[in-house]
Amino acid sequence: MTLNWDLDRYIEYVRWYLAFKPVSKQKLHKDAYNKAKEWFELKTALLQSARDKVVEIYTSFKNIKKKGSQLHLRKCCIRFDARSFTFVKTDKEITSYWLHLSLSGKWGRTAFLIILKKRKELIEEALGGGIRECLEQLKDVSIAKT
């Protein structure tokens, strides 16, 4: 799935950026941005949000670390801005809301169906309730990768 590929690349990118031990967004941008854009195939908006996130992570760690402690990135959430996503409402009754994510240059935009309570009931009714288990699993999905 493209989302998994993009999330893996994003985390790899954040870890790579952390190796620079960044304390300044400008310095990190100058030192690593062009190489990162070439290597990681993520959209510019994600590269920039990851850069900002890494500086915050490292600065926070540096300020509260104990003697001899090491920074370990256990999980990471993607921060989106208006350049990375759009919500779309279509005129279809059952599948009327979609989230379009633009994460990597490799895959373009990826669309995800957003199921609201009323839509869930319509889908269950249309498919005779067989979709219930699948929808229950979907309610716990979030865009985070460990």
Helices and strands in order, then pairings?
Layout: H1 2-18, H2 25-40, H3 44-64, E1 76-77, E2 85-89, E3 97-104, E4 108-113, H4 117-126, H5 132-138, E5 144-145
Describe the structure.
- With about 150 residues, the chain is of the alpha+beta class.
- The chain folds into 2 domains: about 1-75, no CATH class; about 85-140, no CATH class.
- The protein is about 50% helix and about 15% strand.
- The chain is built from 5 helices and 5 strands.
- The chain has helices at about 1-20, 25-40, 45-65, 115-125, 130-140, and strands at about 75, 85-90, 95-105, 110-115, 145.
- The strands form 2 sheets. A 3-stranded antiparallel β-sheet has the order 2-3-4. The chain has a two-stranded antiparallel sheet with strand order 1-5.
- Helix 1 crosses helix 2 and helix 1 crosses helix 3 (about 45-65).
- The radius of gyration is 19 Å and the shape is elongated.
- The relative contact order is 0.16.
